[in-house]
């Protein structure tokens, strides 16, 4: 089989290829992902990872920073909190790397490797909904559902007797539920 992919050249292409590959590997293997495997997947020399990012922890932080930025951009562009949270859920359903990386880090936290406790997307959402404690709790519930589904969705489908063919319909109904949680928070 011939490789039809073009090797990334230039700073921006290399950084983008490495960040994309690193997100896949860190979400699949956690902080124990191999830099050599990431370099091979990105089709770059290992030395380029060190040049552009530093060490593995620096690369992991760059991946998380990029994912946080994307989440914040999504929230900022949304007209309201309900739309933003629904879009976060829908985006996370199809690209769950951020949640999986966070789960790995929370479950396998080593000395010297800690999560930075900055949540700009959630801060932007909280600003959109204001100080109402019920609406704040609605956000907590929506993120609990989003994060939990991202990690345990397949097992939950099986446990509740759904087939994999039912996944899209279940996710659409969960997105509707998230809308209700945000627009009609628990009291």
Describe what you observe in this structure.
The protein is globular and about 55 Å long. It is built from nine helices and no strands. The protein has helices spanning 10-29, 35-42, 46-53, 56-77, 81-94, 97-107, 120-129, 133-159, 167-183. It is mostly helical and 187 residues long. Helix content is 73%, strand content 0%. The termini are far apart. The mean pLDDT is 90. The longest helix is centred in the C-terminal third of the chain and has 27 residues, at 133-159. The chain has one domain: Tetracycline Repressor, domain 2, CATH 1.10.357.
Identify the notable features of this structure and list them briefly.
Tetracycline Repressor, domain 2, 187 residues, 9 helices, single chain, mainly alpha, 0% strand
- Cα(first) to Cα(last) distance is 59 Å
Return the CATH class: Mainly Alpha
**H/E series:** HHHHHHHHH
**Count of individual domains:** 1
Shape: globular
What does the main sheet amount to? none
In brief:
Helix content is 73%, strand content 0%. By secondary structure, it is an all-alpha fold. The chain has a single domain (10-183), classed as Tetracycline Repressor, domain 2 (Orthogonal Bundle).
């Amino acid at each position: 089989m011939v490789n039809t992919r073009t090797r990334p050249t230039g700073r921006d292409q290399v950084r983008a290829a490495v960040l994309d590959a690193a997100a896949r590997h860190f979400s699949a293997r956690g902080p124990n992902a191999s830099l050599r495997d990431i370099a091979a997947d990105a089709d770059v020399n290992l030395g380029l990872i060190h040049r552009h990012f530093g060490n593995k922890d620096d690369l992991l932080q760059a991946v998380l920073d990029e994912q946080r930025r994307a989440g914040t951009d999504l929230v900022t562009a949304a007209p309201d909190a309900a739309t933003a949270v629904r879009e976060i859920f829908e985006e996370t359903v199809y690209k769950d790397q951020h949640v999986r990386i966070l789960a790995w880090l929370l479950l396998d936290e080593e000395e010297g490797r800690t999560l930075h406790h900055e949540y700009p997307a959630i801060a932007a959402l909280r600003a959109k909904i204001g100080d109402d404690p019920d609406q704040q709790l609605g956000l907590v519930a929506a993120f609990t559902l989003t994060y939990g589904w991202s990690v345990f969705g397949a097992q939950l489908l099986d446990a509740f007797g759904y087939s994999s063919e039912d996944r899209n319909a279940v996710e659409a109904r969960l997105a509707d539920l998230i809308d209700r949680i945000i627009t009609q928070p628990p009291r």
